[in-house]
Structure formats: C-alpha cells, structure tokens
Amino acid sequence: MKRLALLVLLAPLAMAQETPAPIEHSEVAEGIYMLHTVGSVGLLVGDDYVVMIDDSLRQTGDRVVAKAEELAGRPVDFVINTHVHGDHVGANETLADSGAIILAHHNIRKRMLADPKLNTGPGALPVITFSDEVTFHLNGHEARVFHLPTAHTDGDAAILFVEANVIAPGDIVFRGIFPFIDLDSGGSVAGYKAAMQTLIDMADEDTKFISGHGPVATRAGLEQDLAMLNDAEARVKALIDKGMDAEQIVAANPLAVYDAQYSWQFITTERMTRTFIRSLIPE
Questions:
Q1: Which CATH superfamily is domain 22-219 in?
Q2: Structure pTM?
Q3: What ranges do the domains of the chain cover?
Q4: For residue range 119-167, what is the model confidence (pLDDT) as tens digits?
Q5: 241 phi and psi, to 5 degrees?
C-alpha cells in the first residue's frame, strides 16, 4: 500500500520530466518571429504565405511545426535552409510531408545528398536551389536570400527582410558565444569574419538579427562578437609566430580572457583555440 501511494505521488513528477519544455518565441517585427529552440528558427507570417527559416532537429520537428502553425494559423508554405547542419535542416522531411517547399543554396543540397544522416528521404532535400541570390515577394515583404561564401560552411545563406529591417543569417551569428566555424564543411575563419562584416555593413542601429544561436541580436552585438574574433585570432597568431606548436598554444590558453563570457558547452575556449590554430597553420 505504501509503495502504491509512493508511485501515485511520483507519477506527476515523472510525467513533468518527460514533457518537453514549450518552444518560446519573440516577435522581432510585425509578422516576423524567432522561435527559440536548439537552432533558432525564423518565421514570416502573413495573409499570403507562411515562410520558415530553418527548422531545428529531426526529433523536434513535430513540435517546431506545431509551434509555427500555432503562430500562423495554417501550415508552412516555404522553408529556407541557411546551412547544412542537422539542427537547422533536420525537420525538412516533416515540413515537406505537410506540403512545404524547401529552398537552399546548391551546396546544401549537395552535402545533404552525400550524408545519410541528413538524406533521410526525398522530402529531406531542398527542391529549389540557388547560387548567389533569390528574392521572395510575399506578404508585403521583399525577402532577399543571398549566399555568404566559405563562412560557417560553404552553403550559408542569409535572408534580409528589407521593409522590416530584419536579417536572418543562420549560424553567421552566435550572439555572445564562441561560434562554430565548420572547416570540414567548407567554412573558414576569414570567410566567417567577412560574412559578419557584410551583415554589419548592411545594418543600422535598429536592425534586428534572428541569431542562429543566442538571443535576438543587434548591429552592436555583432560588432562586439566580431571584435572578439579578430582579437582572439591575433592572440593565437602571436603564439604561432613565436614558434609554438598546437599543444603548446592550447596549454598557454591565449583566449582565457574570453572564457567566462564566450565559452559554452559545444564550443569551449580550447575548441575555439584549436579552430584558429587549424586555420592559421596549413596542414
């Protein structure tokens, strides 16, 4: 009897632990939302079409789609993938099954075709691809989708909502944390910094950025993060110029000054240091 009573008391707690946290959102401009999930998701809602920018992990696809339909009141029409990583393209198939059309840069489709973890079926792949730029005209918005070469990956795209002064650049923006620069997927430190500078040059003090990871960002936030990258790279290069090898540089911890603010679970101070080393020392 005591065991039964204990089970009754613990059941609500167990159910609460199994229930995933709700997906929160911010409205960054009228009809433009940022969904806060594993990799941030953008959403344009209007009278004509519903457009999603990225779509999170495959296993959270149903929840992301449900949240988008809750905000929009109807299914998603288009999905724009900003790059190839699973936390941004993982729910493509779920959305395609509900009728959405997937668009991305050529290199995203190419990389997805070669990766069985992402190429999970015809619906997972973008069905429309572009090379440099494509523009959507819908819901009273001009949405300019443009390629940022060899940055976070080799297939990065950003979306500028001209009238709303909102930019969704995917993982070109890791606001306030060390960025993941995927050297194995065509990214580069130089290209990443150039892409950040391109976004800064496009923006004014009122521009809002739907970060790939982190909170809604501003031009000032991007300027701060780019200054960190420039200084961090210079600190690593100074040790390379002294003749230190990779392990000596890591041991010296040249990015210690940024550890408290910028280091996080995925990109630690050591991993960011090794990214700079790999970029600066030819293999």
A1: Ribonuclease Z/Hydroxyacylglutathione hydrolase-like (3.60.15.10)
A2: 0.91
A3: 22-219
A4: 998 899 999 999 999 999 999 999 999 999 999 999 999 999 999 999 9
A5: -65, -20
